[in-house]
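Q: Given only this backbone (455 positions), what sequence would you predict?
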């Protein structure tokens, strides 16, 4: 038996879990006509002839390894956009992305004018503790100039074994260049970001790596602790899956299951091997106890994101808001070659289906409420004249706020949906998020809730 890694991924995100599979070259004889041995031999001989002709007559002697890898990749990529060959380096990088942990410094970086620019240091990492700041430029890594490297090469040099030492030269505006020596540590890729919008939780999952469910669970618990200090409770949750390209299948199932107490989450079926169909069902327990849930999606929400959105939509557990998702409903299998020494092949092996039995492939998830991203413009002037402003108006003092009832500073009445400071600014700059928050406030105002159980 061969162990495979099943993925339901799109774009750069990768999502998988391991399970046994039948020998990969055992085809369904009823579905695929058996080729005659002489035809297969002739075609293999054709490939050999072309390979030898290229080796012998191409203008420059090509690498045998590069030719073989290109041939394998061509065979796989001709099947569909998501099947491909990964050389050992690409396979290793995929494992780093999906695991969500690596030995490094803890900085998000980009490339600017040929040098590495720090976008932001990650909290509680060597980079943050050393005082690296947003906007710092890294010009040398272990005394080697960064100029001439691409971003991938520079990142590879900064990563390394946990506990190993690295020296980087920093240029900071207003200061002379200086060296910083750091010890690499285990860096966890942060795939979950969260904050409170008044008494409504906001959780954004950027990819479904191994940290996704754990990050979601921690965020919800932190909301409860924070609100309890002010004698408040959570009113609802916005789950933001916009521009989330995918990730691990088991994490997509776990995140969906987190909000459901029963019902199917997703099923995986293959036309070649219908007997291998799998169904994933929710277990009892809803981490927000049936409170209103709004899921934000858009055209960049793919694969695992669509599993979550489709499951919660079909089971009536959440309101899906935003724009139609990407539409990738196929499942890939990552098959290590020679134990990974020769890389791996990624091959589409099946499709996934939402609880209602619909395939999302090339269709996507349509939101329950379509909200396109837009800028909100206030048209009604704040200083508009009203009845009490007219000279001689009756009961001018009726309803005027008393001193005791005057609005409290910093929007202290958050229980009524008043947002404060940066939270209000964040929502005001995001039209789709603003509409999601309004939806939850409307539901709770009239005592409604989305179905916590699922079908």
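A: Predicted residues:
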């Amino acid at each position: 038996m061969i162990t495979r890694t099943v993925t339901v991924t799109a774009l750069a995100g990768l999502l998988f879990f391991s399970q046994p599979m039948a020998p990969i070259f055992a085809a369904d004889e009823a579905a695929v006509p058996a080729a005659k041995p002489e035809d297969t031999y002739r075609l293999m001989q054709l490939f050999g002839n072309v390979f030898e002709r290229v080796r012998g007559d191409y203008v420059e002697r090509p690498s045998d390894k590069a030719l073989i890898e290109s041939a394998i990749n061509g065979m796989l990529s001709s099947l569909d956009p998501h099947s491909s060959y990964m050389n050992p380096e690409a396979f290793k990088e995929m494992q780093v992305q999906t695991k969500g942990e690596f030995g490094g410094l803890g900085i998000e970086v980009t490339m600017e004018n040929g040098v590495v620019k720090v976008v932001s240091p990650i909290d509680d990492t060597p980079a943050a503790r050393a005082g690296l700041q947003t906007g710092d430029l890294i010009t040398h890594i272990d005394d080697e100039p960064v100029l001439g490297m691409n971003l991938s090469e520079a990142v590879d040099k900064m990563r390394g074994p946990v506990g190993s030492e690295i020296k980087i030269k920093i240029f900071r505006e207003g200061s002379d260049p200086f060296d910083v020596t750091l010890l690499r540590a285990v860096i966890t890729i942060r795939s979950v970001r969260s904050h409170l919008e008044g008494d409504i939780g906001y959780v954004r999952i950027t990819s479904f790596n191994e940290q996704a469910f754990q990050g979601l669970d921690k965020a919800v618990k932190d909301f409860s602790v924070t609100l309890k200090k002010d004698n408040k409770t959570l009113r609802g949750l916005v789950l933001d899956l916009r521009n989330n390209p995918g990730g691990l299948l088991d994490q997509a199932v776990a995140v969906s299951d987190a909000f459901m107490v029963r019902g199917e989450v997703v099923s995986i079926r293959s036309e070649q091997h219908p007997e291998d169909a799998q169904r994933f069902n929710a277990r009892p327990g809803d981490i927000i106890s049936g409170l209103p849930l709004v899921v934000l999606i858009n055209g960049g929400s793919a694969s695992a994101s669509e599993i979550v959105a489709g499951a919660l939509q079909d089971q009536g557990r959440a309101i899906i808001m935003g724009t139609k998702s990407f539409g990738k409903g196929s499942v890939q299998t990552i098959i290590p070659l020679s134990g990974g020494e020769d890389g791996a092949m990624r091959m589409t092996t099946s499709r996934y289906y939402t609880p209602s039995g619909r395939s999302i492939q090339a269709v996507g998830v349509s939101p329950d409420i379509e909200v396109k991203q837009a800028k909100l413009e206030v048209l009604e002037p704040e200083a508009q004249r009203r009845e009490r402003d007219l000279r001689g108006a009756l009961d001018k003092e009726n309803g005027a706020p008393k001193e005791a009832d005057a609005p409290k500073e910093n929007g202290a009445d958050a229980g009524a949906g008043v947002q404060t400071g940066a939270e209000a600014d964040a929502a005001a700059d995001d039209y789709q998020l603003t509409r999601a928050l309004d939806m939850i406030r409307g539901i709770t105002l009239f005592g409604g809730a989305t179905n916590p159980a699922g079908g």
